[in-house]
Amino acid sequence: PCFASLSIARMFRGFPSSFYEEYHKYRPKSEPQQEYEERATLYELFHHLNHTVLFGVSRRLVKILSIKAL
Fold it and tell me: What is the DSSP letter of 29?
């Protein structure tokens, strides 16, 4: 899925919403679409965990780990 390529961008505040709108015209959100944001957050979490292993704990990772939605 597109999560792998887009999640690292999300980690660094991503792109403008116009980018994602155009992107998804050519690469639609995967099914089930209502769970898209949750899956995108999980893929982003992977990159945060990877950066934690490489560079140490970040405040952003602590914030993400506290998200109750996951």
Answer: P
